[in-house]
Amino acid sequence: MTKNQRINKGNSLLVFPTSFSIIDIETTGLSPRYDEIIELSAIKVIDGSVVDKFTSLVQPDSSDGIYIDSFITELTGITNEMLASAPKLSSVLPDYLDFIGNDLLVGHNVNFDINFIYDKTESLLSRTFSNDFVDTMRISRRLHPEFQHHRLSDLCERYDIDYSDAHRSLSDCVLTMKCLSFLFDDAKQLYGSAEKFIQHASSKSKSVRASDIITTSDSFMPDSPLRDKVIVFTGTLDTLTRKEAMQIVANHGGINADNVTQKTNYLVLGNNDYCSTIKDGKSRKQKRAEQLKLSGLDIEIIPESVFLDMLDED
Cβ(124)–Cβ(90) under 8 Å? Predict the structure, then answer.
């Protein structure tokens, strides 16, 4: 399932809420279609105070008792032995959704978590998952464009938060809550109030062209995956404005373009929900890129999350 097919998905909001649920999951991989959830956690916050917590391991499908590989165990500390006695997602997910209720959700790079939960909720329970959400990565990128990376580990290092217990979902919820507090303080310090920051960050130019973007970098990183690549964007990005994304491309030595052509290397997909030119769930640019790819040209069609991962790898 692609992002544009999650028609009931909630909206990404740029706010500093006082009542919300922080969510995080651990998975066997990056694809909601092919990978599985192995841990679900959430922290419920009301008027700035933690009132309840939820956490559960989840046993993924396995024919031989091997649920995860050594990489996932090394990353999370979760073992096959721990998952052997864990409940199945079909029994845990209803309780998790009941715990969250209709809360506004907060998470770091939370689109990843939302997409997994959305797809599993639809396939296992025939229900929709439509909670609106706040992404602390999005806030960090808007608040601190001077920083190259905005992973949870980067924010913890920036704010001197102990990261040693990361990659367990409940611990990551706690880390995200701490980072949200620091980001709120930064917004007040830099803009005078959180409201003024949100007003500034939410203001988007109605249109921006590739010719409007000029690099602000004195030197390019030689190993950047964007270096000398022609990048085109389509749809509304969740984490960045179009102008911010194009500026990043320019600063990494990439080449922005307004339209998909035979020279295009990457088409980055945003959210097409609000695009008036969409037909059959795909923009004109996406259809053109698919035609070129089928003809054998070197063009990749990637979601915004992969574009951000490329920046983090760099």
Answer: yes
- Please answer whether residues 98 and 125 qualify as being in contact, where contact means their C-beta atoms are separated by less than 8 angstroms: no
The model's pTM: 0.71
Angstrom CA distances, 279 to 4, 6, 165, 282, 287, stand at: 11, 15, 45, 6, 10
| Cα dihedral sign, 9-15-21-24 | positive
| Domains identified in the chain and CATH numbers | 3-197 (3.30.420.10), 210-313 (3.40.50.10190)
Task: Please report, in angstroms and rounded to a whole number, the separation of the first and last CA atoms in the chain.
Answer: 28
Question: In terms of DSSP bridges, do strands 20-27 and 37-46 run parallel, antiparallel, or are they unpaired?
Answer: antiparallel
In angstroms and rounded to an integer, the radius of gyration of the C-alpha atoms of the chain is: 20
Q: pLDDT tens, 28-49?
A: 998 898 899 999 999 999 999 9
Closest residue by Cα to residue 23 from 56, 48, 47: 56
